[in-house]
Write a structure and sequence with these properties.
This protein is mainly α.
């Protein structure tokens, strides 16, 4: 295979499969840099490949942690809003029942007149 001056010899499908397995292994690894190690990095190209993976996992961890915290805040806000909506619906039902002369019920509870 030749492209722009590069020439790859051998079975490219096999190499691609090996690369996919290597990336999958690295992505599933839990080994990451500590915060102190991360702060000490000045040039990502000057550290070893293994340490670049560890740094990547630290960055990914920090980002997902931030996103999870943000999602949790919004989830709590949503749940409070949903509970307020349910309260309003219950109050509406109560007002309808207070004003009704005849109260009927379907087996599925779908009629609300």
């Amino acid at each position: 295979m030749q492209a722009e001056g590069w020439h790859v010899q051998g079975n490219t499908k096999k190499l691609a499969h090996q690369l996919q397995r290597k990336i999958a292994r690295e992505l599933s690894s839990k080994d990451m840099m500590s915060e102190a190690e991360t702060r000490a990095v000045r040039n990502v190209w000057a550290i070893t490949l293994n340490n670049r993976w560890r740094l990547y996992r630290r960055w990914a961890y920090c980002l997902t942690k931030t996103f999870k915290e943000t999602i949790a805040i919004h989830e709590r806000e949503f749940n409070r809003g949903a509970e307020r909506l349910n309260d309003v619906r219950r109050m509406e039902d109560l007002e309808i029942l207070k004003a009704a002369d005849v109260i009927g019920m379907t087996t599925t509870g779908t009629e609300r007149k």
